[in-house]
Amino acid sequence: MTVRASNGAQIRVWRENNLYCARPAGSAVEPQICAAVDLFEVIAELAGLNLEVTAQSAEAVALALEAQRELEDSQDRLEDASGSD
User: Fold this and answer.
1) Distance between CA 17 and CA 59 in Å, rounded?
2) Is 42 left (phi over 0), alpha (psi -120 to 50) or beta?
3) Which residues, other chains included, contact 8 with Cβ-Cβ below 8 Å and sequence gap of 6+?
4) What number of other Cβ atoms are within 10 A of residue 60's Cβ?
5) CA trace torsion 39, 45, 46, 48 (10° rounding)
6) Which pLDDT score, from 0 to 100, does residue 77 have?
7) How far apart are CA 63 and CA 9, in angstroms?
8) Helix axis angle, 54-82 relative to 39-47, nearest 10°?
9) 29-71 tens-digit pLDDT
10) Looking at residue 30, what is its pLDDT?
């Protein structure tokens, strides 16, 4: 899935097992890999958001939560379709 920051930066985020991967959308660079708790920092760095600025740090957290929710929902739907518990 792709999240878009207010500055126009687009970040592609996906899950591999229990880890999150992120890189600028449309880029072939190696992704940054992190745990869910660190996803907001990775998104902030890739999007050029300054975590010292309250509004920008809140935006990074919101984008990370959006990505986590969507990716968890997608994973749940895949598990439901496959009959996994």
Assistant:
1) 25
2) alpha
3) none
4) 26
5) 130
6) 56
7) 12
8) 120
9) 999 999 999 999 999 999 999 999 999 999 999 999 999 999 9
10) 96
73 pLDDT band (50/70/90 cuts)?
confident
Contact 85, 76 (CB under 8 A): no
Q: Is the pLDDT of residue 75 over 70?
A: no
Query: Coil, strand or helix: which one is 77?
Result: helix
- pLDDT score of 13: 97
Instruction: Specify the residue for token string 């990716």.
Output: 71
Contacts for 50-59: CB closer than 8 Å, 24+ residues apart? 59/5, 59/6
Tokens 């999007």 correspond to 47
CA distance 52 to 16: 29
DSSP-derived letter for residue 8 is S
